[in-house]
Structure formats: structure tokens, C-alpha cells
Amino acid sequence: MTLGLVLLLRMAWRNIWRNRVRSSVVFVSMGLGVWAGLFLMGWASGINDARVQDAIDDYLAHGHVHVAGYTADGTNLRALLPNASAAVAQLEARPDVRGVAPRLQVPAMVQAALGSSGLLLQGVDPQREAQLFTIPHRVPDGAFLADTAREFNGVVVGQALAKRLDLRVGDPVVFTYQDTAAAVHSTLYTVEGLYDGTSNLTEEAVAYVRLDRLATELGVPQAAHDLAFRVDPSDARQKQSLEAVCAEIQEDFPAFQVKSWRKTAPEMGYVDEIMAQALLLFMGIMLLAMAFGILNTMLMAILERQRELGMLMAVGLTRQRVFALVVLETVLLTGIGLPFGLLLGHATLVFTNRTGISLEAFADGLAEFGISPVIYPQVVTHWYLPVVALVFILSLLASLMPARKAVSLNPIESMRAL
Fold first, then answer.
1. Is 2 exposed, middle or buried (0-12, 13-18, 19+ CB in 10 A)?
2. Which of 215, 259, 270, 387 has the most CB atoms less than 10 A away?
């Protein structure tokens, strides 16, 4: 049995090199297809990872502590943490927490000289906010709530909103909002800075004021709607580790809710799950197209070798071995191109992961979706084994029709073929 398999392998190896040009085209197309599929997988993973990381760095953080009924859009104004400073101190005492930022969030209407817009007015502690997020460090025009004068109501708005309302640093704006007793407040603020967020949507939707000023306006001193926190980077990278840390923090705050960013912004987590399925489907479609190319190549080879196959069957080669011979040829055609594609794809991903791919020409369009203009494709080693399995499964399926065609040949008629 072993000797027969070795003989079939030698025959299959020689057969695929009988037409070197055609076989080489199959090898190269298979390798380039696998390379393109892996690169696109790494590219998509890099875009999604960057989008999530930018959101975490801009406003999302790793986790949140709040009371039941809290909503991130600020519509439930009464969902307050009553003694936020004590909760902040307790949270900061944990060795796995790297920073905490209390926030008040109020839906508001901003009115300027040239128009108005709805947004989320967010009261923050400037120093704590700067420890957790990048937005306080990306204020190219003005400053991030640096003026502490008692009579000064400063606000920091996004550049996209400032462009739409024609706002500049020093311009007065009026914010209208309700407090927890449903009383309407209209407060005059002065634009203190214009921040540059990763996403234009965020720039238009969120404005920042000082936490103590907003708490006074709302009549809720020492309170906050949300405590955003960051954990050790090694824990943040692993979903299980982050959820475990949140579960431990939950034990310290039994009266509150502790949620990771995947639960407070589930749409960000859904993208990961959907993308995994979509990438595998995309790779499957690409490899299926290549499988049809292999199918066509093998059918052409069977047509050209009718006389040879008929003679082999006439001298005693069983139909089962003819079937196995064609299947082995197909697998060898695939097996030679596959390692080439994997190596080329891995090398490309490693290189571009270090250097990045600049899309500065499309920066404005990418900013609409919160995507950085420099993409760092991820080395998706966890996809290599599924891709290899998918390639061999499709190559086996592609070999069935040519193999069946070969075993259905009549030896006498085939030997008469020209």
C-alpha cells in the first residue's frame, strides 16, 4: 500500500511538470490569491483595531462605573453617582487601575451667531481627563479648560462643529439644557479651545466644560454620571482579562454597575465578530474562484492525456488509483502555491505593521468614520490555519470532477484518441 502511494506521488509530481508554463501559472495565481487574501485580512483587522483604539483613547476608556439606568447619551440625568470623589479614590487605590475620570453628561443645544446644534455637554476634570484621553492633548487652537477664573465659563468644542457654526476661540456661545429637576438653563460660555478628534462625528457631538461648573449649574455638587477608567495595557488587550478586571471591580462596587467598553459600546464589539465572519467568507469566495481555475486546468490535463490514461488502465492500473492520481496532482498543484502565498503574505504584513500605510490623501473622508489616516495592518496568524484548511478542502472538491472524468474513460476508446 505504501509503495503504491509513493509510486502515485512520483507519477503525480512528474505529471504536473509536463506543462511547466501552465503549472507555473497555477502556482503563481494560487500564491498571489492567498497573499492578497491574507493582506486584506490584516488590512481590515488593522483598520478595525485602530478604530477601536482611537475610540478608547479619545473618549471610551477601558471601563465604566455608573448606577443602574445610566445611558451614555445623558438622557437619564438622575442616574447619578452621589459621592463621586469617594468612588474615584476607591477605584484609584486598585493596583490594576491606571487612571479614573469622573464625568457629568447632559444633552444640550448650543446656539451661536450663525446657527445652532444639538450635542452632548460633558463636564470633566481637566487633569484627570488628560491622564486618560488624548483629546485634551489635541487642542491646536486655544487650550483645554485651562482657565480656572471663577467668573469664566470656558467650553472646548470640536473643530468640525466650530467649522459648521463658524466658531473661533473667544467667541461666546449659549448652551441650553435641563437640570435634574427639569428646570431649563441657558448659560453663556466662551469658546476656550477647539479640539481635533479622530472622528468628525465626535467633534460635532461632544463639547467639554469643567465638571465643577456644570455640577453647580445642575445642582448636583460632588456627583457624576460616569467614572471612566483605564487598566493595565496587558489586561486591556485581552478580552477575557479586561472582563475579569471589571468583574473584580464590580465586587468592590456592589451598588453600582461596572462594564467594559465592549458592553457600554456594544456596536464596537459587534464589528469584531461580524468582521471575522465576513473576512472568512471573503477569503472563501476568493479561493473558490481559484478552485475553478484549478478545475479548468485539471480538466484540460485529462483531455490531453486521454490516450495515456487509457493505456495505464489497460495495463492494470485500477480506476481507484487513477482517481487517486488525479486528486494527488490537484493537491500538489495547490500545495506548491500555498506556502509561497503564506510566506509572502506574512512578510508583507510584518513589514507594513512596522512601517504603516499612509492614506493622508483620504484623511478627511476617513475622519468621518473615525479612522486614522495611517493604517497598520495586523499579522493575523490566527487565520493561517483556517486558510490552509480552506485551500485544501477546496482543492479536494475541485479535483472530484476531473478525477471522475478520468475514471469514466473507456481504455480502448481512449487509446485510439489522438
1. exposed
2. 387
Phi-psi label, residue 170: left if phi above 0, alpha if psi -120 to 50, beta otherwise: left
pTM of the entire predicted model? 0.75
106-121: b (≥16 Cβ within 10 Å) or e: bebebbbeeeebebbb
Measured between its terminal Cα atoms, the distance across the chain in Å is: 33
Instruction: Mark 240-257 as b/e (b = at least 16 C-beta within 10 Å).
Output: eebbebbeebeeebeebb
Phi, psi of 238, deg, nearest 5? -105, 125
Dist CA 117 CA 166 (whole Å): 12
Q: Do residues 84 and 90 make contact, with C-beta atoms less than 8 angstroms apart? A: no
CA distance 155 to 169: 10
Query: Residue 350's pLDDT band (boundaries 50, 70, 90)?
Result: very high
Rg of the chain taking only CA atoms, in angstroms: 32
d(CA 144, CA 154): 9
Three-state DSSP at 318 gives coil
Tell me the CA distances in angstroms from 7 to 127, 322, 361, 404, 406, one per residue in order: 75, 12, 58, 21, 18
Mean pLDDT, rounded, for 196-206: 88
Strands (DSSP E) along 268-388, which ranges? 357-358, 374-375
Let me know: does 403 contact 299? Beta carbons within 8 Å: no
The 3-class secondary structure across 393-404, one letter per residue, is HHHHHHHHHHHH
Would residue 48 be called left, alpha or beta, if left means φ above 0 and alpha means ψ between -120 and 50 degrees?
A: alpha
Query: The C-alpha cell of 354 is what?
Result: 512596522
- Residue 109 reports pLDDT greater than 90: yes
The residues near 286 (Cβ < 8 Å, ≥ 6 apart) are: 33, 36, 37
| Cα 412 → chain centroid | 60
The span from the CA of 63 to the CA of 249, in Å, is: 10
Nearest C-alpha neighbor of 209 from the set 293, 137, 106, 282: 106
- Please name the residues in contact with 69: beta carbons below 8 A apart, sequence gap of 6 or more: 76, 78, 79
Which cell numbers hold the place of 163? 467649522
Task: Give me 378's grid cell.
Answer: 495586523
pLDDT tens by residue, 58-74: 888 999 999 998 888 88
Cell 450635542 found at: 119
d(Cα 25, Cα 408) in Å, to the nearest integer? Answer: 28
Categorize the per-residue pLDDT at 317 as very low, low, confident or very high, splitting at 50, 70 and 90: confident
Strands 172-178 and 97-112: antiparallel
